[in-house]
Design brief:
single chain; Nif11; Nif11 family protein; mainly alpha; 3-stranded antiparallel sheet
């Protein structure tokens, strides 16, 4: 299934095509973003669906299978989701290898300046898209902490290990990522605006994140 996603959207020629297309036409929102996350989660939980998607040889039957399983997705929506995420990860990867860019991003005074610096280097995404991905990363159980002097948090991606704690903490300071989260999901979720990530029931972190954050705070 992941080969199909790469072949339809992320292979070099497809990536260039879709990157230019979504840069001009980006009319999607958090609802669409979450819908695609939910679909991919369903795929991971459903072996038969994953196998069926892996057998598709073009985008049309891939999308048809998604629709048949309750997710009416368009090619443009999937492209926007996948290309945007890749651009953010590519920026993090490039910044990790380029100290001058990393420093410039870390001293950005607000998220819009951060996004502008990214665009100047060929990576295009909005403040909202950056926040959605960082919140998702922050709440992922796959975050792995390392014990060092700067309290870095690493997450595994297709690039290997990429430093991510810097960007999460920067976004927290800007107020686009919620600063406080539960270590464990509470039994009773709060009702109300379920799209508000700043509610205390909307974001969950492994214990290691708090240990690292406390370590950094005590050493600063």
């Amino acid at each position: 299934m992941y080969y199909q996603i790469w072949n339809f959207f992320l292979k070099e020629d497809k990536y260039i095509y879709w990157k230019e297309k979504i840069k001009v036409n980006k009319n999607f929102d958090k609802v669409t973003w979450q819908k695609i996350i939910d679909f991919l989660f369903l795929v991971e939980q459903t072996f038969q669906l994953k196998s069926q998607l892996a057998e598709t040889d073009s985008l049309e039957p891939f999308l048809k299978l998604a629709t048949e399983n309750g997710y009416n997705l368009t090619a443009e929506e999937l492209a926007w989701f996948l290309i945007t995420r890749r651009q953010i990860w590519d920026l993090f990867d490039f910044a990790q290898k380029t100290p001058s860019l990393k420093e410039e991003l870390l001293i950005a005074k607000d998220p819009q300046q951060f996004v502008n610096i990214a665009a100047e280097n060929g990576y295009y995404f909005s403040v909202e898209e950056l926040a959605w991905l960082l919140i998702e990363i922050k709440s992922s159980p796959e975050l792995v902490s390392i014990n060092n002097s700067v309290g870095e948090i690493l997450t595994v991606s297709s690039y290997g290990r990429i430093e991510i704690g810097y960007w999460i903490w920067l976004a927290e300071d800007w107020g686009i990522v919620p600063p406080f989260c539960h270590r464990e999901k509470p039994d009773n979720l709060l009702s109300g605006d379920t799209n508000n990530p700043f509610l205390l029931d909307r974001c969950f972190l492994p214990k290691s994140y708090f240990n690292q954050r406390i370590l950094v705070s005590s050493n600063s």
